[in-house]
Please model this.
Amino acid sequence: MAIYSLKETKQPPKSQTKAILWLKDNLFSSTLNVVLTFVALYVLYLLLPPILNWTIFDANFDLTADNQSCGREGACWSFVNANFKMFIYGFYPQEELWRVNTMFGIIAALVAFGSLIKKTQYRAHYIIGSFLIYPVVAFILLYGGLGLEIVETDKWGGLTLTVVVAAVGIVASFPLGILFALGRQSEMRVVKFISVVYIEFVRGVPLITILFMASVVLPLFFSAGMDFDKLLRALIGITLFQTAYIAEVIRGGLQAIPKGQYEAADAAGLSFMQKTLLVILPQALKISIPNIVGSFIALFKDTTLLLIIGLFDMLAIVGAATSNSDWLGRDTEGYVFVAMVIWVILYSMSHYSKRLEVRFSTEHK
Amino acid sequence: MSELINKEIGEKGCCDIIEVKELNKWYGDFHVLKSVDLSVKEGEIIVVCGPSGSGKSTLIRCVNFLEKFQEGSIIVDGTELTDDVKKIRQVRSEVSMVFQHFNLFPHLSIIDNLTLAPIWVHNETKQEAKEKALKLLDRVGIKDQAEKYPNQLSGGQQQRVAIARALCTSPKIMLFDEPTSALDPEMISEVLDVMVELAKDGITMICVTHEMGFAKKVADRVIFMDEGQIIEQNTPDKFFENPESDRLQLFLDQILTQ
Model:
């Protein structure tokens, strides 16, 4: 038998620079990888020059140019400048635009102020309070009342409409989705049956169908003379649709919670509500964050379908703007601009979701 | 008062705190518990052992109604367990359980794990609950980890937290469901030490475990179960020195020669 002395802890060998090591590991690690690297480079070579030429090198950045003086070989960004207000506010009256700006300003302030609050206890109060009060404030600002002039919803459009629809859909579908997810897990047969039927029915139908139903079928249930706001119908349709998806996402999270968690909560004497709210849901929601945000991102993109029932979201506004004889044929500029705006918003959402995951992580750090 | 008298006469408990009568349970067609009778006196420390699948975990899990049973009755501290949610919660507020896989709440810090039930079930103030929790954490030797999360601790530490969590509601009865089976060998003793300390305090304990050293040291009674029934029960001395049934003899031979 032998006895060994403890060995020294050493630094790893530094044979190559980091950059070369990275290239070797990621781009040229195998024959297939080498081939793929060159194919990718070739595709970039084909695609990048025309894209860059159109958007930058051949483009006209003179923001006062009109359609004729702009030229046809590149993008005409004055189109975006000239229609900017329409993209953002739709047909909202010029002199009332401050109301939309205030609404966006308040939400930015709420988020900024919220991130300053350190104590979790106060943060919960703050968030719940904001969720209860802000929608009312936002509604009064946008629609009117309390001395503000009424702006009918058919004047709403552009990014404002997109954000309003997505936000209402997200905020309303989240609690409803939790209820249906719990309902589907419930031991009460009737509750479970209703939840399953609802979720499976909605998931089996495309959003367009639901929007049509909300806009055409829903009014049939109300008396003939009653004018039922078109936007409200769309919001109901979108919320119903999103609820089913959120419910399924959260159910996935609920199923990932080990049986031992339920048992520990039961054994401690917690009631069903306490067990659900204090032990099960916080964990299930944490697991579900990436999928919940993914579902919200899908919803945000789905708002473009509102065009079909005659609401002008940001994408539909491009069509409206280019049908103006001053700007015929400038669709591409409009769509590229809208794509960039939506990308920035959605990328921020997905980035925020990653930060949430890190913040709620209780693993080894 | 009764405790005093009992100490004087050198015996534990005048009264049965747990009474299990004619308990029958099936998983589908499988008969897990076959007419089990068991009464436990206040302050008694019972170790239950037996081969896997013998129904020992199922038995103690019936005592706090984590498992439903089809026939028989269980009375815990005067409350009979039925489907009545109030009675179940009443029993559970007096009975704490420590699990094989700890089952700490991973989204809560250690201190919040301990104070959850005292605050929500026993209506204690946060301050009271926290003070008691820190005392208990001190007792199990991990006071300095109070603000950490369960996944940042070792298995042995987690199980000690679980014991502290179980004690935090000042239970009359502690159930241990194989508390050391999921631990690395070098961590078993730190958990057993805590349990031995606890046994000295006079709390009623039922432990499902294969730690025979623990049984010899603290148990008032050792129970051997096989195929869903109690085969033999005795004081630790007689249980280990003179096993009466062949099956217990065989079982002891197997685990003691490991």
In short: Chain B is about 40% helix and 25% strand.
